[in-house]
Amino acid sequence: MGITVYAPAPTPSDEAARERAVIASGALDARDDPELIGLVEQARQRFGTGMAAVSILSRDWQYLIAAAGVTSRTYSRRMSLCGHAIITPRAVFCVEDARADPRFADNPTLIDGGQVRFYAGAALVDPDQFPIGTFCVFDRIPRDDFGAYEQMHLKQLADAAVARLAERRAPSAP
Questions:
Q1: How many structural domains comprise the chain?
Q2: What CATH number should be reported for the domain holding residue 138?
Q3: How far apart, in Å, are the Cα atoms of 90 and each of 58, 93, 152, 158?
């Protein structure tokens, strides 16, 4: 058993308000929504990654409410790459090779079994500008080809996921 020096993502300064936005979004009740799953499958195919997900960060946990290529659906937020992605919600957070990146090289979730080497996440930003989670793609192999074009498409998928969550919340027409 070794000692790790992994540092989890910082907590956003407006965490209490962000958490209220997560609850208000209804995202935690959207698990396995067919339209979100369709978006996730589309992302996995478009970007050629083994895994993709819509991830919601709430309290100490990360919930994958729609996922492809992933068996577990709940993770500790402390070990989450998505926790880092919501800190800079206007930019796509990209890690080409988690093992080579000093911020993540000792993350137990990443090194145990080598589950994630490449990660890209675009924040799910609600209408009040709170990042409630991410739309992310990730893979077991590192990648250095996730450029501006791919990032733009990932942001579009994140926006589509936010729109779907808003649609689910809207009262149905009489």
A1: 1
A2: 3.30.450.40
A3: 19, 9, 11, 11
